[in-house]
Target: Putative protease
Amino acid sequence: MTRYFNGKEIELLAPAGTFEIFKEVVQSRCDAVYFGGPVLNMRMMRKGYNLTHEEIAEALSIAHGLGKKVYITVNNLFSEQETEEAREYLAFLDGVRPDALIVQDMAVLKLIQEMGLTLPIHASVMMNVHNLEMIYALRDLGVSRVVTSREMDLQTAKLLGTRSGVELEYFVHGDMCSVHGANCYYSSHVFGMSSNRGKCMKPCRWNYRIKKDGYVFPADYPLAVKDMFMYENLPELIESGITSFKIEGRMRDKDFMVMLVNSYGEAIDRYIEDPIGFDRTVDSKLLYQNRKRDFSTAYAFGKPGLRNINRRYEGTGKFYSTGKVFSTPTAERELSEDRVMQLKGRLAQEARPKQARVSPELAVRVNNMAQAKAALEAKVGYLYLSGDVYEPDRPFTKRDIMELGALKGETKLYLGLPRMMTELHFDQYDQLLIHGERLPIDGLLVTNLGAIRRYNTSGYPMTGDASLNIYNTLAAGLYAGLGLKRIAVSPEMTLEHFATFASRCPLPLEMVVHGTPALMYMEHDLYENAEVMEPIGEEDNRYVGNDVLVLMTDKGENPVYRDQHGRCHLVFAKELCYLPMLDELNAAGISTFRIEGSTYTPEQLGAIITAYQQAMMGASKEDLTNDLPPVYAGYTLGSLQFD
Model:
């Protein structure tokens, strides 16, 4: 069953959570079905879901007998310990021949190459593909289709698809995240349950209070977005050149999915048959009456703003309208002496031989010139100028870079790039890095695959930021082959995963050891709540100035910073602090310790730098930790507190 419009293929892609659901959905008006197997996929939280090896083989036989395709999700990050399991699973999949794998971890691409497999590969939405260079890079690695970033509008998708020639897949219905794909670390840091490893506890659907300027605003569920609904916009989807229309719903029940898929399939067929006389609304009422949440077209036609946020019961922490609370607000754990000792002991087991260790250096990321000068005065090893500058500070100018270049001395000065880069951003940075005069910098802090491809021949050495989510040595090796000289370890690594990875990785490793890194990175502008709503109470922020927006639960306050691109960064309520275990981290393979300094005053940052420098020179880590009071709600060990 293949659909065409003006000679171009159109595919309706349906989800299935179990084999029983698959057998019904594959008979509906879809062209392809996707599902997960027993391991390595993004839906690992619900017992009884996903298919066994035997069911996968049978499902493929059924689908191919009907002339339909099957895509299998191998779309989470896997640890060093899971590498052999990944090899075995990929070998099995190569034998049963699905029509494609949907992949997040770059290590899967590396394994497919190493094992000589011929499995077609689709880039998962968790790769967060958002620019042409990313598509080119993935195409070079053998990817034949890209699931676009959820935040991509249809006009951008049309441009990227036309220019790249790569098939694009676009979500058209179902549950959406409010955070950029693979850029949410909240669940891993407070539960040890990684959203990038299929175990998200959905903190985006918690109840929060929004505070700003000393006021409380009526935004009970400010991160709980509506469900995607593109049923009435199928003509625009087809016109944009999207190949595959993807429905979300691997956790949804059989009857609901069959109804939904049949409605979309029937509408596509009606449009192909009679585009001029097409009625967009035939099943709109049916779909609305059976909705799980209210509907939105999300970013398809531009930034949706507050209208993308759900106000009904189903948009809250209640899971799929069953009334069950999926998870509840939980505070970041405190840095405890007992846990620090456990970490030290475990890391000591993975210590490299003394002759193989590298003397550590200190890196600091800053948000403004005052912070930068404080770091240079302290003679840190690396100074990173942020590419996502928090308001009210403004981006570093070329004059700023030239001034810091003249002052840097032995410090290595790196220019950070934005985490999300549009075609406009590439034009701007091309002018600065390729076509302009040589900058007095020592390298680039790169944040996405597209930037690596674009600037790997610019003459500036590249360090890979934590946003690349490198979780195993296979992915590290692939990125090294693309030109990275040093990488930051994934911020989601639990103790066991980190210890094994760090001790085996051949690349120089960097780790964020102090500060308030972003737990959520989103296009959605939370500040709009305080700009358009009337306050309902008065309450000051406890740890940051009232000019900073705060998301508050009964467990703590999470500051939210907006950058120069209008994107929001929700950060820790507590500060990450690995000061007591620097020696063990270095012995395990970390050669660069990074301080996330963007939210500190220059004076606070100076004190933190001094403490870490003294620790690296042999001073008592325990005394230094005790003498360095937290600026915010306390200290935490982040994901390393979990095994």
